[in-house]
Amino acid sequence: MLYLIGLGLSYKSDITVRGLEAIKRCSRVYLEHYTSILMAASQEELEHYYGKTVILADRELVESGSDKILSGADKEDVAFLVVGDPFGATTHTDLVLRAKRQNISVEIIHNASVMNAVGSCGLQLYQFGQTISMVFFTENWRPDSWYDKIMENRKIGLHTLVLLDIKVKEQSIENMARGKLIYEPPRYMSISQCCEQLLEIEDKRNAKAYTSDTPAVAISRLGSASQEFKAGTIQELVEYDAGEPLHSLVILGRQCHELELEYLLEFADDREKFKADVLKDQEFFKPAPWVPPAEEDSE
Amino acid sequence: MLYLIGLGLSYKSDITVRGLEAIKRCSRVYLEHYTSILMAASQEELEHYYGKTVILADRELVESGSDKILSGADKEDVAFLVVGDPFGATTHTDLVLRAKRQNISVEIIHNASVMNAVGSCGLQLYQFGQTISMVFFTENWRPDSWYDKIMENRKIGLHTLVLLDIKVKEQSIENMARGKLIYEPPRYMSISQCCEQLLEIEDKRNAKAYTSDTPAVAISRLGSASQEFKAGTIQELVEYDAGEPLHSLVILGRQCHELELEYLLEFADDREKFKADVLKDQEFFKPAPWVPPAEEDSE
């Protein structure tokens, strides 16, 4: 059996009881280690907690070396651990398909991920549109296809979850060229940098998908003891120091209900200003006033 | 301390280790019991598992009697358990705000909910638009405001998660009129009924937000041992007997990537037909072909 087990967001004890019981049965335990990190527990702590050796699985192992992971899983139990949920922001459907083709049974043990725990900022999950990813801009690579997606979401009034880039086990181009297997220290995008990149692209595109006054919610260390939310405009969040990673961001849509706003105000420095910013932003993409359709009366 | 603790989707052991540890510290334990049910565990089983009495909290208690729940939570620990995640489909932000106003500390212990576990059908979570709820139609009440939301999602190519109605502890109008406190047996909407209602409203609105040939994924008993997925058109799913509750549905959007489709084909009765249905459906809301913008060259 191959178990795909979500670890949740932060603590080692965020694993489900069922997940932990499954790990105890496994002869090999892999931890997916390139799309996210468990904030409050190191590899050693996890090994101690599980009573098992934990093998770190980088992108190469998962994408090209999956036969290694699946080896023997038709006869013994193997666990593949994923921070958050196995079908969260990065889905591991490929590994599942490969397993099935080798007649290996697969069991998924779900957990919270940023995709649903983001609801704890007070915005309703069913009011979110598509999720976007913000990557670190480089001198020559400043991708902005996410801009259209924010526009699409905001046109229909929806909130946008922005996932911020994580660079783990990356090589510099220099070291790669020299054939040196030296990894750069891990990098995690900050809310401030994300907001800067948002404003740079709005400046370039200038289609008013959002403005520097558009309200947003900064989310840091979601699900951990030091979790923090900050409500402010994108411009205000450029100046915001959110501290340690991991960070995410939600750009508000027009459909911000009263109860959602009331909850967000708890996280605003200046409640009156934030309220005014939200009201002002709701003028964007405002639909024409509703006119009762004459046809329906005759039904 | 007030703990809001997600129970996950199905098994009693789907609770996180941290959640279970918190319950053990609590002097009172409430279970929210009107928006969802834990499929594989009864109240008695939970009580035995936790070693605590579990008080069922109906809508009335949570919405009007929250002072009872919060009573003493500034001095002792109280748990409020929610199937799925406390900020999933139904958010309990109101209870959190009330607690904060009484200077009661609140800790959220997240878990998987349908809002993220739906990813296990193989569709990418970041390609989902707003979520809709389908209620039981009655003779005089057949609300269809969700139709516009499906249209909005599909216009920009996104998938739509449809949450199906649950009626727990409802009174019949007759018994209510007679002042008799008799509750109807719980009812859970089936995928088949949901698809019927979808087609009825498409028939009435006729704006082609979707058609009877639009592909969808039926999800039954998500996260449980008897979990099942079925890929088919809405018309095909009218005929589909998905068995025991709980059920949900995903209506596909145009942005169905190759890997998503490959995964879905595992759940189709007739793979070639489903593939053809998806390709045909992708013609809906297809944007005009892309023309390189002349301006960008000059930058």
From TrEMBL, chains A, B:
The EC designation for this entry is: 2.1.1.314
Q: What does this protein do?
A: S-adenosyl-L-methionine-dependent methyltransferase that catalyzes four methylations of the modified target histidine residue in translation elongation factor 2 (EF-2), to form an intermediate called diphthine methyl ester. The four successive methylation reactions represent the second step of diphthamide biosynthesis.
Does S-adenosyl-L-methionine show up as a keyword for this record? yes
Domain (Tetrapyrrole methylase): residue spans on this chain: 1-237
Pathway linked to the protein = Protein modification; peptidyl-diphthamide biosynthesis
Enzyme class (EC, first level): transferase
Q: Which residues bind S-adenosyl-L-methionine?
A: 9, 85, 88, 113-114, 164, 222, 247
Alphabetized GO MF terms:
diphthine methyl ester synthase activity
State the organism named in the record: Zygosaccharomyces bailii (strain CLIB 213 / ATCC 58445 / CBS 680 / BCRC 21525 / NBRC 1098 / NCYC 1416 / NRRL Y-2227)
Keywords, A to Z? Methyltransferase, S-adenosyl-L-methionine, Transferase
- Catalytic reactions on record: 2-[(3S)-amino-3-carboxypropyl]-L-histidyl-[translation elongation factor 2] + 4 S-adenosyl-L-methionine = diphthine methyl ester-[translation elongation factor 2] + 4 S-adenosyl-L-homocysteine + 3 H(+)
Keyword Transferase in record: yes
- Please name the HAMAP family in this protein's record: Diphthine_synth
Specify one Pfam family: TP_methylase
The secretion signal range is none
Protein's name in the database: diphthine methyl ester synthase
One GO term (biological process): methylation
In which family does this protein belong, per the annotation?
A: Belongs to the diphthine synthase family.
